[in-house]
Each structure stands twice: as structure tokens, then as C-alpha cells.
Amino acid sequence: MSALADTMELPADYSNPLATSRPMKFTHSPNDLVLDRYTIRRGIGVGGFGEVYFAVSQAGKEVALKRIQRNLEVELRGVSHCLNLKHLNLVSLHDVCRDADDQAWVVMEYVAGPNLREVMDEAAKSAESDSRNVLPSGLFESQVRHWFAGASAGVAHLHSAGLVHRDIKPGNLFDDNGIVKVGDYGLSKFISASHRSGHTESIGTFHYMAPEIGRGQYGREIDLYALGVILFEMLTGELPFDGETPQEIIVKHLTDSPDLSRVPNPYRNVIHRCLQKDPSKRPRDVAEMLSLASMPSDQTPVLAEVVTSESKPFDSDSSRFQSKKRRHADPVIAAGLASPHAGGASMVLNSSAGEEPIARAVRNSFSDARAWWRALETSPGIKLVLAVSAVAILLINTHWLLPVLSMVGFFYVPYYVIRHVVLQLSDPTSYSPTSTDSQGLRQGGPHAHAVANVRPAVKPTMTKAQVRSLLRTSLSDRTRLSRSAEWATSGMTSMIVAGVLLLLSSVIGMRSTPFTPMALAPYVWMALVIWLGAFGLLGIGKFWEGSDGEGLVRRLVSSSWGACLGLLAFVLGHFLMVPMDEGLGRDIDATALPVSFYLESGVPKAAAMMGHFALLFALLRMWKPVDPLRRVRLSLWAVTVAVVGEWVVHQIVPVPQPAGMLIAGGVIVMTQLSAPWVKADAISTV
Ligand SMILES: Nc1ncnc2c1ncn2[C@@H]1O[C@H](COP(=O)(O)OP(=O)(O)OP(=O)(O)O)[C@@H](O)[C@H]1O
């Protein structure tokens, strides 16, 4: 058989778009015998190093044969190091040898499943043809974690063996019956790079190249960089750095920052770190990278697990990823997903580090509205009428919309700047679960190192109480700076809520009164007192969130804060000249009230205001609305209890009404709306 024998066309089932852009010719035909013992069955594809064939040995063993291009020099010294690597997440290299024509061949394990390139292209096609626009542009989270966990485990094993892959890209990651396998490792080291003419034919390769490769640096950081690019691509369906020409792509790798706005946490932080231009700023190793992604970071091979329940698409935080149907039967999920961190819990804990929550909520509402608009099954004519009506309504209402929007902007811009500055100062990793808690949370763990050093993907059998306690630990482990940053965020959020409250209450309350500063004063006073009450509670709550706590101590602390709030309310009331002699209630006889607490007219003195709120805050369990692990984000029951409780306290230490009740209810609403919250279903899905 001659090495330059027949050619054959690419099989129809081959779907790599990079490769199919031109007709593919193979040197060997089906049934050719190569290396004296392998019968070629078909050509699989042609890459930068040469042609790949599917072949069987005389005994019937299926292998993939890579025929290295003639003009590439193969350095066999050191290859044995690669040949003897064994790991479930690595495509096994059986041999590297030469045939009678001195042609170099790599004999390796044949992987029947698709590679990640094909999976992502298929996903992009489905998303494109999805007229309802419900499919995500990238992969589903279960798929992302499956590929990322498997690829990382393979790469970690290479690194631990002292090897750098150098050519990590989706085409080199395979799915073998639910097990991700990394292929092509080590080859680029042993095949002279200077002659790799084929590489320039496929610009796909440059998309995953770390900037320092241009300087001839090939540390293990280049593999982490490539994994970061792949993670980005899986999540968004797009490349972080793309361009028309290889030069353009390379320049972007060297100078551009990736746009991470569409990437949800915790992946945003991982990608941010992996795509650092300076290799020393990337994660130290695969383990650190995985811990940033809240995935198990040991090197045990990552097996697959059959998922029977509907796999959840991305956290609703990011509507780009939401979907109601699944792309594949999606039979597998990496063992990494078995970590409780894989659920929403850690994502919610991390949410404060990532995108600004108000902007995210607004953006989500817009994308929801856009999705609703697209899904609207109605004639274009009706759509046009609807659109014109909406614009007309907006224009007619500009007289109040513009002031409201400017006011929102007035609060929002300084808030955004302060939050940004505070977060910049804080260590971004402090928002990620610490390695200790990921260890702790991985206590699905008695199973973790089972037979044959393979970790079966067993779902952790943790009770809700255990998960809560681990989340508490995770909350208490956070740095003071990160808590302060979160407090600042909550404070600013509550300020915006207070602004909206003030606006609404004054618009409603002053319908029939002329607008004067005196008439507005009580509303400003109430909004300020509510905001101060909530802000203080949010701050105190930062000390409480790490434990379920001792009720009595917490009541005393809240009561003290209640007394302070009463004093502040009193001082502010005087400062704003709020008429305090009204509204004690017809049933209360002002003359019978103690003179040390009230004026003769019934106006409460500072002591009455302090006593009222101290008593109220001692009565209510004020640590509940600030607890990130509370059952629901906004409990109307808690609001009702606060209002009724205030009425009860008012019978003992009266204050002007309905201001008192509004303040009590307002503080509870605002606190709940502004305090961080871990979704209950994030806990129950664990
Ligand atoms: N062990 C294998 N089993 C099955 N298919 C394989 C195997 N190795 C490679 N292939 C397939 O063969 C084709 C060519 O692979 P090859 O690795 O030569 O090219 P590439 O990855 O596109 O580029 P390069 O090798 O330059 O990085 C690809 O479609 C790849 O999925």
C-alpha cells in the first residue's frame, strides 16, 4: 500500500464547519492496511497535524489513527511520558510509530461521541431555528458543567504529570458516552510547531490561544486561559475575542477585555480570572479555577450521571439562558454538579459580587418584555398599533415620568459609583465560596473515593438543615469588607425604595392639598425614618447572618436600635417641623399620659418615641427580615405582624398615627426588599 495512494471524500456524518469549508482528501482509502495491523474503515477529519482515521486492529480493537503530515518533524523523545498517562478524562494514546515509508502515526483510543465543537454548533443551529426564542444561545448549565468539569479533570491530570496541553479547544474535547475526554494532548510539544502550516487554515485555533504564546511562553496557564475561553463560549454561544482575520483575533487577545455582562456568577469570576492577559493573575491551577466555579477540585476522574429530573436551565438571573425545553435528552451531568454548590445557593450568595442587582432586574424585565413581544402571536398590524399606543402613552406622561426618572437617576448614579468602588476595593474572590466550604459542601463525600479511584456521581444526601448550616458557615466566613460592601448595596437599594415610597405616598396623600414644603414634610420624615430603620437593621443583620442566633440577645440589640430610631424620628420630626400633636387616636386621652413622656397637648417627647420603638423592636423578631436564609424574599405576613404589633405598642406608648403603623410596616418591607436573600428553591434543589 502506498502512502500517497487513493484519496477519499469526507464521510457525510462529519459536521465540523471549520473542516468542511473545503473538500477533504484523505491519503488512505477504506480497507487499506496501515502499520501492518490496522485496517482503515473511514477518514474522520483533517486537522493541523494531519489526517485522522477510524481503523480496527486485526483482533478487532477500534482505534483512531492520526497520520502526521509528512512535513512535520516528530520528536519521539519524551512521547512515552504521554503514552503512559492514564485517566478517564484523557483520550488514551496507545502508540506513536513510523510505517515503512517513515511516516509518523499516532495510535489512540477511538471516541465515537461528538466533540464539543460539534455540540456547540448543533446548539447554535437549534437556537437559530427556534422561532419561539426560548432556547439559550449557549449550552444548558448542566451541559456546561459536564464539559467543564470533565475537561478540567483531564487537564489537571496532565498538569500533575508535568505536561501542558497547549492546544485546548472544543474540537479536542470529546464526549464518550457521557464522559468528557481531552484529546490531542502533548502532541504539539513533540511535533515541530514551526512547520504547522495547517494551523493557519483554521482560524478557530487562534480563538483559544493565550496572549503569551506569541512570546513563546507555554506554561500551564495557557491551558487555563483556553478553558476560560471555552467556558465563555459554552455559556454565551459566542467567543470572547473574535475577528475576521487571525491577526485581528490575536490583537484582541492581547488588548481587549471580554464582555462578561451576559455571564452569570460564579462563572463570571472564573472567566475573568482565566482570561487575564498576565498569566500570573490567572488561577494558580485547575483546582483553584474549579473552586471559583464552585466545582469539586480534586483530580479524580469525572464520571457521568444520568439525570432523571428536568435539568434546570440557568438561574433566572440571566434570562438569556432561560428555556422551557431541553435541547437534548441531555443524559449526562458531571459529577461536579453533584456538589451542592452547583445549585443556585452559591450563585445567590455570589450575586452581590457580580452584576449590579437593580440593573440586572431592569435588564431582565426588558428582556422578559422583549421575549413576550416576540412570542406574541398576533398580526404585524396589531403589533404596530400596540407599539404606537405604548409610545403615545409614554409621551403623554412625560410630565411626571421625566421627573421620576431623573430622581431615580439622582439616587442610582452615586449608588452605582460607590458600589463599584467598594467592590473594586474588596477581594473579588471573597464573594466566592471558600475552598473550605466547598470541601465541606462536598460531603456527598463518603462516596467520594470509591472503588478504582473513581468518584461515582452520587447526589449528596444532605438534609435541608445541613445545607442551611453549611450556608451559614459560608456566610460567616465572608470578610468584613465584603459584608460592608453588601451593606452599602442594601443601604443604597433601600434608599431608592424610600425615594419611591416618598413619591408614591406624597402623590397619593397630597391629591387635594396644595403642594407646599410644610405639606410634604411628614412624607419626607416618614421616608427618612423608614430608611434609617431599615438601614440600621441591615447593618446589624450582617453580624447575625452567620448563625441562627440567640433570640434574647437579638431582641435586646434590636430594642436598642429601636430606641435610637425613636430618638432620630423625634429629632428629624422637630427639624422638619412635622406636626406631632395630631393623630394619637380618639381613644387615647392625652391628659392621662405621663408628663415625662408627653406634652400636655399629647405631643410625644423624645422618651415616648424612644420607648415606643424600643418596645416594638423588642417585640418583633427583627433578625428575620434581614436573614438571607429567610423562607421568602418578601413576607407579607411579617409586614402584617409588624403593623398589628405597632398598634398593640401604640396602646401602651402612643405615637402619632397612622405614621407609626406606616413606619413599622415600611421598615419591614424595605428591609426585606433590600436584604440579600438565598432562594428557598436553591436550598431545596440541592
Ligand atoms: N481519538 C479520536 N477519536 C475520534 N475522533 C477523533 C479523534 N481524534 C481526533 N478526532 C477527530 O478527527 C478530526 C481531526 O482531528 P485533529 O485533532 O487532527 O484536528 P483538529 O483538532 O481539528 O486540529 P489540530 O489537530 O490541529 O488541533 C476532528 O474532527 C476530531 O474530532
UniProtKB/TrEMBL annotation:
UniProt keyword annotations, A-Z: ATP-binding, Kinase, Membrane, Nucleotide-binding, Serine/threonine-protein kinase, Transferase, Transmembrane, Transmembrane helix
Region feature (Disordered): 306-326
Domain Protein kinase: start-end pairs: 38-303
Transmembrane segments: 384-413, 487-508, 520-544, 556-577, 603-622, 634-653, 659-678
Keyword ATP-binding set for record: yes
Binding site for ATP: 66
Pfam families in alphabetical order: Pkinase
Gene3D superfamilies the record matches: Transferase(Phosphotransferase) domain 1 (1.10.510.10)
GO-annotated molecular function: ATP binding; protein serine/threonine kinase activity
Protein name, UniProt field: Serine/threonine protein kinase
Lineage start: Bacteria, Pseudomonadati, Planctomycetota, Planctomycetia, Pirellulales
